[in-house]
Amino acid sequence: MNMANLFCEPFPEKSWLLPVDFPLKETFKILSQKFPHSYGNMLKKNILNTSTVSLPSYLYLHLAHDYDDHDKLFLCDQDKTLLSRVPWMIMKSDNYFVSSLFLMPSFEQELSKLFPQKDTVSLHLGRYLFHPSNHVWGLITRYYEAYLAKADERIGIQIRNFDTVPGPFQYVMDQVLACTLKYFDNVRNMYWEHPTVNGDVVEVFQPSQEQFQHTENRLHNNKAWAEMYLLSLTDVLVTSAWSTFGYVAQGLGGLKPWILYKSDNQKTPNPPCRQAMSMEPYFHAPPFYDCKTKKGIDNGALVPHVRHCEDMSWGLKLINNHDEL
């Protein structure tokens, strides 16, 4: 992914990008779970079991969705004093694991100071750090001004489908209509044939029709980022379960979306959706481990501000302490 094509630099005279002569750049290409300087791998081989050990100049944290029990121990407070002596830490992750950091005493106190309203972490970080590049901002502003700026109410609908066979699927349409009663051509045709009683105008727009994810395609990624941002500018948001695309939009927009439940056997779920407890994204692969007792535990029942997800029963998310469950 080319960061420069997606994001502007968030800090004056600073850069997201490492210098071209950064000494570890070539190492990034060979990082893996079994890498010799991997934190989990070093724990597995008992290399980090003593304070007198000679620490490496850098340590790799493998926190991606396929991490194992040793990798997950980074989300415990053990070894934090030891790890503070490592000059460089390199992390690879496709998880939003902030909720687990709030379960760690070494982080929780400082995080609570930074985010007294705990369900606003992604909102503040997203708006502070993720500024669209000039090209992407052009896509966003042109579309918004052409189609959305004059609307009294904007409803954003994001659909992710996990079926491996080509669509479209009627059960998905039925689910969206059951949840919102306002969607794409069906809605457009309904109001074309039966105008609203009071003369209100309902219009349905779709910024792009990429259909499938193309991870390394630069133009595709630009369109995806633009659509996430456009979704965040809506008044009401409907998103798909298990979809990071929707999570980014809700976090940026500070929105509690209506979540379309994941379908089984191509049938419309009943109920079709429910509203999220908070605007925070979900942690899909949390550890189920009590660092103190070294036993399995339900991490969604330890503190009032970390709960299980609406769309994935084993996932975790942050909520505001005073939100109703």
Automatic annotation (TrEMBL):
GO molecular function annotations of the record: galactoside 2-alpha-L-fucosyltransferase activity
GO BP: cell wall biogenesis; cell wall organization; xyloglucan biosynthetic process
One Pfam match: XG_FTase
GO CC terms of this entry: Golgi cisterna membrane
Keyword Metal-binding: no
Keyword set includes Magnesium: no
Main location: Golgi
Cell location: Golgi apparatus, Golgi stack membrane
Xref: InterPro entries: XG_FTase
Record-listed E.C. numbers: 2.4.1.-
Alphabetic keyword roster: Cell wall biogenesis/degradation, Glycoprotein, Glycosyltransferase, Golgi apparatus, Transferase
Signal peptide (UniProt feature, chain positions): none
Root EC class: transferase
Domain of life: Eukaryota
Family statement drawn from the similarity comment of this UniProt entry: Belongs to the glycosyltransferase 37 family.
Summary of the function given for this chain in its UniProt record: May be involved in cell wall biosynthesis.
Descriptive protein name: Fucosyltransferase
Species in which this protein is naturally found: Quercus lobata (Valley oak)
